[in-house]
């Protein structure tokens, strides 16, 4: 439960939201979540100001210490001289910092104020841009703590932004993806999947809520009336049938995105497969630029799967070296297990690269015609005349390095084709607005998380059931209405409009301190 894991500061935000009357859907949900926390009286709400070092550990050229909460600006005043006048927000200014009690100088840095609600957290925020040595950072942190502020928990700045309706759940997830992005494609994807996607899912939910209000009205109307015309679905549902059908088709197109977002987020799985001794381990070592896998002239050397993370053309790839595929009396129990694992990895791979050793071709080792093979690599070109016909594959030599660049560029192309042109439609200003065509812009948006896909799938199933129930006319109108409700709750869960505490619980724990 979020209630247990959430930092104490969360209570204060709920309290102030209530007083200022700014509670949106999220605020009211949180109120439910946080109602009657034992031992906390309402007066303690709004008192809590947090701080954290938002940059990495010293030493570094510069460091940023961030404060958020009602005491941020008074704390800045305490750390500066008594004559210090609070500058206007959003303007950098020179700040000579002193310990508030001992008045020992701490640093000459810069600072900036963001007045709530126009700040990341929605509260008053102060950023101290100081020198990044251990001595300066420790001194400033100690001074801030001695001023009565509390050290922030992991992700607490972002959790406050969420609680103050500055960010939706989906935007929090995108921010997390951005902060953990390892490749350029992940970065572009994270940047392109926030406000635009929120607008699209919100527009879907609007369609469903409108349809629900129509079906609720039918239920009320039919219970007070003897109207016998209400057996015809078209007469009962009117335009609702078409709008729900269109939305269901939009969801289908949305789901048929080739899992590109998940591939970019989780990494494209590339499997090196082939007969023993073909040179798979030699190839993974070349790709990884280090010795990750044992190479030997003994066939059957690799048993366990060895996986490395590589950035190929800006796409995160998980490249696996696997055991050479063979069976027979010579193959011992351990190698048989290795082959089983190799086949499993190949089955689950997004890209299969078959390695054929040119020295093994006479023994029938010229590779398979498997449907799953995306790229064929003829290795040990140094041992053979490479002018031969290699059936569309690439001829390389791990010994001389010949063909290695071509292998990398071909493999990069296969991987990039798999994930498509990510971010091409992002930020193009095609935001779907509530009440307009709910399919608008959704083709440009790809699903980035399994969680989102599961919610869309469940909503889609509910709409399929709605269409079947609608054919039954008035008799099934309340069941049909319930399906619309299920679909709208599922879509609301993606953005965080409805109960998502279980997701939040783990999400904020994955953030770093200071964000
Ligand atoms: N001449 C030559 N030898 C190579 C080349 N690539 C690999 N070898 C040698 O071929 C042998 C097998 O290489 P590995 O990379 O271990 O082959 P593997 O496919 O991983 O083999 P298993 O793990 O047994 O399935 C080693 O002796 C390598 O030095 C190459 O391009 N040219
Ligand atoms: Mg090997």
TrEMBL record:
Q: Which residues cross the membrane?
A: none
**Main localization, broad class:** mitochondrion
A Gene Ontology term for the protein's cellular component: mitochondrion
Q: Which UniProt keywords apply?
A: GTP-binding, Nucleotide-binding, tRNA processing
Enumerate the subcellular locations listed in this protein's record, separating them with semicolons: Mitochondrion
Q: Name one GO molecular function term.
A: GTPase activity
A Gene Ontology biological process noted in the UniProt record is: tRNA methylation
Question: What PROSITE patterns is this protein classified in?
Answer: G_TRME (PS51709)
Query: Which residue ranges does the record assign to the TrmE-type G domain?
Result: 267-416
HAMAP family hit by this protein: GTPase_MnmE
The entry assigns this protein to a family as follows: Belongs to the TRAFAC class TrmE-Era-EngA-EngB-Septin-like GTPase superfamily. TrmE GTPase family.
Q: What is this protein called?
A: TrmE-type G domain-containing protein
Which species expresses this protein natively? Answer: Triparma strigata
């Amino acid at each position: 439960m979020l209630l247990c894991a959430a930092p104490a500061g969360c209570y204060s935000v709920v309290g102030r939201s209530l007083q200022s009357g700014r509670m949106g859907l999220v605020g009211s949900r949180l109120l439910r979540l946080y109602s009657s926390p034992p031992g906390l009286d309402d007066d303690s709400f709004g008192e809590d100001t947090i701080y954290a070092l938002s940059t990495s550990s010293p030493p570094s050229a510069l460091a940023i210490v961030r404060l958020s909460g009602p005491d941020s600006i008074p704390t800045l005043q305490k750390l500066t001289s008594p004559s210090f006048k609070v500058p206007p927000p959003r303007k950098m200014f020179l700040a000579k910092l002193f310990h508030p009690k001992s008045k020992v100088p701490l640093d000459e840095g810069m600072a900036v104020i963001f007045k709530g609600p126009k700040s990341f957290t929605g509260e008053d925020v102060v950023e101290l841009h100081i020198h990044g040595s251990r001595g300066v950072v420790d001194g400033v942190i100690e001074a801030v703590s001695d001023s009565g502020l509390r050290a922030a928990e992991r992700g607490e700045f972002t959790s406050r932004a969420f609680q103050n309706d500055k960010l939706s759940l989906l935007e929090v997830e995108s921010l997390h993806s951005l902060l953990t992005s390892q490749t350029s494609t992940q970065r572009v994807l994270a940047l392109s999947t926030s406000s635009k996607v929120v607008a699209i899912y919100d527009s879907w939910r609007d369609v469903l809520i409108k349809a629900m209000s129509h079906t609720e009205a039918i239920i009320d109307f039919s219970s007070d009336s003897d109207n016998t015309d209400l057996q015809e679905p078209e007469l009962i549902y009117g335009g609702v049938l078409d709008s729900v059908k269109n939305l269901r088709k939009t969801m289908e197109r949305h789901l048929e995105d080739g899992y590109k977002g998940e591939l970019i987020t989780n990494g494209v799985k590339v499997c090196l497969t082939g007969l023993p001794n073909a040179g798979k381990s030699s190839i993974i070592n070349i790709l990884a630029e280090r010795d990750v896998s044992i190479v030997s002239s003994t066939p059957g050397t690799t048993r366990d799967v060895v996986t490395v993370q590589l950035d190929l053309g800006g796409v995160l790839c998980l490249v696996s070296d696997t055991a050479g595929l063979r069976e027979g009396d010579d193959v011992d129990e351990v190698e048989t297990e290795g082959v089983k694992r190799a086949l499993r990895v190949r089955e689950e791979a997004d890209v299969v690269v078959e390695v054929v050793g040119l020295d093994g071709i006479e023994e029938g080792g010229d590779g398979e015609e498997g449907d799953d093979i995306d790229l064929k690599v003829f290795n040990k070109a140094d041992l053979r005349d490479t002018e031969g016909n290699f059936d569309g594959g690439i001829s390389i030599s791990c010994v001389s390095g010949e063909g290695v660049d071509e292998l990398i560029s071909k493999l990069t192309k296969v991987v990039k084709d798999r994930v498509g042109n990510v971010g091409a439609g992002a930020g193009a200003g095609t935001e779907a607005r509530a009440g307009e065509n709910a399919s608008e812009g959704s083709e440009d948006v790809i699903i980035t998380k399994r969680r989102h896909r599961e919610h869309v799938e469940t909503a889609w199933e509910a709409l399929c059931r709605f269409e079947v129930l609608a054919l039954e006319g008035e008799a099934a109108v309340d069941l049909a209405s319930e399906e619309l409700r299920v679909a709208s709750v599922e879509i609301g869960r993606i953005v965080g409009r409805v109960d998502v505490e279980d997701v939040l619980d783990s999400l904020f724990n994955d953030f770093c301190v200071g964000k």
